[in-house]
Design goal:
It is built from 10 helices and 8 strands. It is an alpha/beta fold and about 325 residues long. It folds into 2 domains: about 240 residues, Spore Coat Polysaccharide Biosynthesis Protein SpsA, Chain A (Alpha-Beta Complex), CATH 3.90.550.10; about 70 residues. An 8-stranded mixed beta sheet has the order 7-5-6-4-1-2-3-8, with helices on both faces. Helix 9 packs antiparallel against helix 10.
């Protein structure tokens, strides 16, 4: 059993992926800094080491996000930042931050969105569970009252669909989670380029627990996680964890073939009976139906083939363009 002495301050890195967050970044940084300083000076079991850091990951922003991160890091040693060489996506940015945090000897890592709609005040609860022996603590939303009707209904449908496919995602969980250093190192053993961290984390098998948190409305700017990115994330999850869609194409093909056979028999019977059937509607419906099934099947198979092709290249997930507040912070112990 893991012994995490509660008298010992925790060296925590909180990773905040940032993409064009200039409107909200200073406000979020102030909230995180105040929280950290409270936890560093706390006299309870849950307290932070003064070597804990707030790490911003600039995911190829086109606005002044990186300039603001540099400014923050120059103002206070609590902050550090990494800028990816280009926009690599939310999941890669999170992964890069976790890898670097562990490389710089973080004992555990918490990931949270830069807009802090996810309640950062729940962090002490995550740390309490870490001290109790959990290697992974999932942040789970209490409700989706801040979401619109479409996002709320599509999210609920998505979780049900993923569970149907055999991917055991924690319902209503987000990328707000705590992972111990050994859990992050284990996650790094997964080599796929199309990362779906929410699904991969559940595969690790370490002791887990859940923290429920409130979601507030965004104070400034607007979410960069649009419908296109949500669909891309959903496809990554589906193709990474299940081959059931391929089996479904086989089922659709069998159904289409069965319907074609029935229609052929019906046509022969009508001919024998001398019933004249114009047939244009039936023919048109049949062509569109068969064509639709074929295109759908080819599209699904194409997704799998395309992703297999990308994975076969073994290309690097990301490159680091710049860092700030990192070098002086590195632990040089062997």
């Amino acid at each position: 059993m893991i012994d995490r002495t509660k008298e010992k301050a925790i060296r925590l890195y909180t990773v905040l992926p940032c993409y064009n967050e200039e409107e909200i970044l200073r406000s979020s940084a102030e909230k995180m800094m105040n929280l950290y300083k409270r936890l560093i000076n706390a006299e309870t079991d849950v307290r932070l080491s003064d070597r804990s850091r707030i790490m911003f990951i600039n995911d190829g922003s086109s606005d002044s996000t990186w300039s603001i991160i540099q400014e923050l890091c120059n103002q206070d040693d609590l902050f550090c930042g990494i800028s990816l060489s280009k926009n690599c996506g939310h999941q890669i940015a999170i992964f890069a931050g976790m890898q670097y945090a562990v490389e710089y000897n973080a004992e555990c890592v918490i990931t949270i969105d830069a807009d802090l709609q996810q309640d950062a005040e729940a962090i002490p609860k995550f740390l309490k569970m870490y001290l109790d022996g959990c290697d992974i603590v999932y942040g789970v939303r209490k409700s989706r009252n801040t979401d619109g009707l479409f996002k709320k209904s599509s999210a609920n449908l998505y979780y049900r669909f993923m569970n149907l496919l055999g991917c055991n995602i924690v319902p209503q969980s987000a990328d707000y989670r705590l992972m111990s250093a050994r859990a992050v190192r284990s996650l790094a053993e997964y080599r796929e380029s199309n990362l779906f961290i929410r699904g991969l984390v559940t595969e690790l098998g370490y002791k887990t627990d859940v923290v429920h948190f409130d979601v507030s409305r965004r104070e400034a700017g607007k979410s960069k996680y649009n419908l296109k990115k949500m669909i891309a994330l959903a496809l990554d999850g589906i193709t990474s964890f299940s081959t059931k869609p391929l089996r479904w194409t086989l089922f659709f093909g069998l159904v289409a073939s069965a319907i074609s056979v029935v229609m052929m028999i019906t046509t022969i019977v009508d001919y024998i009976r001398g019933v004249t059937v114009p047939g244009w509607s039936t023919l048109t419906i049949s062509i569109w139906f068969i064509g639709g099934v074929q295109l759908l099947s080819m599209g699904i198979m194409g997704e799998y083939v395309g992703r297999t092709y990308i994975e076969s290249k073994h290309r690097p997930r990301y490159f680091i363009g710049d860092t700030v507040g990192i070098d002086h912070d590195r632990d040089t112990r062997g």
